[in-house]
Amino acid sequence: MTLEFRNLTKRYGAVTAINDVSMRFEAGKIHAIIGPNGAGKSTLVNLATGSYELTSGEIYLDGQAIHRLQKYQISLAGIARTFQNIRLFDRMQVIENIEVCLFPAEARQVWRDLVWPASARQRRETRLAYCMTLLEQFGLERQAFDEAASLSYGRQRMLEIVRALARRPRVLLLDEPAAGLNEAESAELRERLKALRRPDLAIIVIEHDMDLVMSISDHVYVLQNGALLFDGTPDEVQASQDVQQAYLGTENELESIRQLAQRRKSVRRLRHQAGTA
Length: 277
Ligand SMILES: Nc1ncnc2c1ncn2[C@@H]1O[C@H](COP(=O)(O)OP(=O)(O)OP(=O)(O)O)[C@@H](O)[C@H]1O
Ligand SMILES: [Mg+2]
Known about the structure:
The chain is built from 12 helices and 10 strands. By secondary structure, it is of the alpha/beta class.
């Protein structure tokens, strides 16, 4: 299974957010897309999932063109995402946040359920058991029946990932999953993402957290001003002069970028807590 971006360009009026970008993602691997703020990372996610229309270029999933499909068709084809800003159903239970994602696939069963309520009950049990195994993968099983809004910020981020996994996607796009997480939560996320690696799933992580990126990725793409600056293994990216000059800077600058990222994380966390208090 492969997802391919071929010469993608996206303009918003006079702004060229993505400029002739080609990338390739393979099942069984974890890929990262890094780059400074405004580099175009989220735009790429929105193009891949059909939220934004391409200005030009093509996207292929397993050789099939998907760039002209509707958003829901792309989702049915097996591409799932999380958002840079959490978007859960706050007033629903944790487990219901997962369960609702399964309904469209079962819509044709509605009539059968009316005629055979026992079979409907049994299918609900199967569905809930499935949701529970997903929640277990991210350590959320004990909070399954709590309201989603009652979870801590870090747990909500994990729930977003579980929800994206509900329909067994072939491609999982995570837009800054570590944003706002503290160090322990980031370390937990790292282990959970590593455990998600499997032969039928391509994982794409957009992140500013360099420690996370470099420790889990097989392949890293570096975006700058909407264009592909470099791609390679984490070691190659860290060794690249281009990347160091254009993005990471010198070793000292690297440290200051880390500190900046850390401060940004704390600010986001405070903002989020203020918003949900
Ligand atoms: N809906 C939009 N309308 C107009 N311009 C947009 C829109 N979305 C993004 N842009 C612009 O496109 C460029 C890329 O933005 P994008 O959000 O993709 O960057 P990013 O790499 O995800 O940044 P960050 O790290 O801050 O999340 C920016 O210049 C941004 O202002
Ligand atoms: Mg973004």
